[in-house]
Specification:
Layout: H1 4-7, H2 29-32, H3 45-48, H4 53-58, E1 65-69, H5 76-86, E2 90-95, H6 101-118, E3 122-127, H7 134-145, E4 149-155, H8 159-162, H9 165-169, E5 171-175, H10 181-193, E6 203-204, H11 206-216, H12 220-236, E7 241-242, H13 244-258, H14 263-277, H15 281-293, H16 298-313, H17 319-334, H18 339-352, H19 358-371, H20 433-447
Bound molecules: adenosine-5'-triphosphate.
Length: 451
């Protein structure tokens, strides 16, 4: 197995960093400022106070695999690193974005060999573990179980929904919190002053600092990345301080490059859906490609497809919902990068399908009535007639069984009295809904006895 695998992870050459090892000077500021000991970690006191679970782990108490769950840039990678440093284990990292079962197996195999050969233990850090498919997560189980690796998995999504049960039950789930404004301020000041940061070459003006704190939204990486961009800009103009104007002029760039949870994400997702609704298959594929390339969570994309299969296509092509659900399953099953093909197939299916919004209109009108209080008693003949005493109440009495009629439909009141004659579903007549445009009015007239 090539050592190079470890170098291709999310921190480049930093992947196998050891205490005291010098980081490349050209590493990003956020990487250079990564805490080297627990004392340098800000916030997360609920996990790091005396006797708290993470401190015990870092201090070498009973090693357990951990799932770190929390927003981006709050210290998940950092803490994984510290666990390996403090416990003298080698640090191997994989990103679920770019690794498959093959890579997972290779890393585990290497960990097993090292353990057998020299007794050297490994912390295996898996970033964004929620992006792993079930099969990929299952590949980790054996090694976690027999302690070949100490797994530290990070996720920004609730692990109870995104991590397979056997892995969940073998791990300690620890939730990280967004950093407080004061924590971010501390990190910015450290980065400005310390040698491994900007080395005190520039001053950070007060309002510029406040702006960076606000922009960060509790994400330390975002704060340090924006600071670095502003510092580069200030240096290039020969200034000796970073002022508010410089921060404002540079943050857009920083935001576009690094802001996974920001506006771009929602704008592109919105354009994707609107292209599908507009039947522009090529534009839809373009936005899909942008999301895939940006590392968007494939399950987020799949969920949008499932929603819009019903909202924009509905009964005009009932197989669209099946296609979207199948793509969602496929993504879960095979993971990325192969999952992109299933997503593309569902995108093409939805974009080229005939369109109808009759389903969403129908349910929303029905909901509107219910919310307006139009929800009278259920007609007695439709009530549950199975329990003891039901008959006495007159429940189910007079109910007519539609199958007894040759057409399978008969005249009978189904809605509460005040809603008799109310039509919610209005077929558009497009695609497969065409047949419903004929059938639904006929059904209504039989049921309402107008025939
Ligand atoms: N709690 C913290 N204390 C000190 N520095 C922090 C903390 N959290 C993050 N940082 C700084 O931000 C950088 C990025 O943090 P880290 O990689 O640990 O975040 P993460 O939670 O793993 O984020 P992501 O989910 O985006 O991968 C670190 O290199 C470090 O400089």
């Amino acid at each position: 197995m090539s050592e190079g695998l470890f170098d291709e992870g999310l921190f480049g050459a930093d992947t196998e960093m050891r205490a005291g090892e010098k980081l490349a000077e050209n590493a990003p500021l956020a990487v250079r400022m990564r805490p080297r000991s627990l004392d340098e970690v800000v916030g997360q006191q609920h996990l790091l106070g005396a006797g708290a679970p993470l401190r015990r782990l870092v201090e070498g108490a009973a090693p357990a695999s951990v799932l770190l769950y929390g927003p981006p840039g709050t210290g998940k990678t950092t803490l994984a690193n510290l666990v390996s440093l403090a416990t003298g284990r080698r640090f191997a990292a994989l990103s679920a974005l770019s690794s498959g079962v093959k890579e997972v197996r290779a890393v585990i195999e290497e960990a097993r060999r090292r353990l057998g050969r020299s007794g050297e233990a490994t912390v295996l850090f898996i970033d964004e573990v929620h992006r792993f498919s079930k099969t990929q997560q299952d590949a980790l189980l054996g090694a976690v179980e027999d302690r070949t690796v100490l797994l530290v998995a990070a996720t920004t999504e609730n692990p109870h929904f995104s991590v397979v049960a056997p892995l969940l039950s073998r791990s300690l789930v620890l939730q990280l919190r967004s950093l407080e404004e004061d924590d971010i301020r501390t990190l910015l000041r450290r980065a400005v002053g310390e040698e491994r940061g900007l080395g005190g070459a520039l001053r950070l003006e007060e309002d510029a600092e406040a702006h960076l704190v606000a922009l960060a939204g509790g994400d330390a990486r975002r704060a340090l990345t924006a600071l670095e961009a502003a510092a580069e800009s200030a240096t290039s103009t020969g200034a000796d301080a970073i002022d508010l104007a410089t921060v404002e002029a540079t943050v857009n760039r920083a935001a576009v490059l690094y802001d996974r949870g920001g506006d771009q994400h929602y704008d592109v997702a919105s354009a994707f859906i609107k292209s599908i609704r507009g039947s522009d298959v090529d534009a839809a594929l373009h936005y899909l490609a942008r999301m895939v390339e940006a590392g968007e969570d494939p399950r987020f994309i799949a969920r949008r497809l499932v929603v819009h299969a019903s909202e924009d296509i509905g009964m005009a092509d009932p197989t669209a919902l099946q296609a979207a659900v199948a793509a969602a399953h496929a993504v879960q099953f095979i993971g990325m990068p192969e999952g992109r093909i299933a997503l593309a197939q569902a995108t093409i299916h939805l974009a080229t399908a005939p369109k109808s919004n009759a389903v969403i209109m129908a349910i929303d009108e029905a909901l509107g009535d219910v919310r307006a209080g139009k929800a009278g008693p259920v007609p007695p003949h439709l009530r549950d007639g199975h329990y003891a005493g039901a008959e006495k109440l007159g429940n189910a009495k007079g109910y007519q069984y539609p199958h007894n009629k040759p057409e399978g439909v008969l005249a009978q009141q189904y809605p509460p009295r005040e809603l008799v004659g109310r039509d919610y579903y209005q077929p558009t007549g497009r695609g497969a809904e065409r047949t419903l445009s004929d059938r639904v009015p006929k059904l209504r007239s039989i049921i309402r006895g107008e025939d």
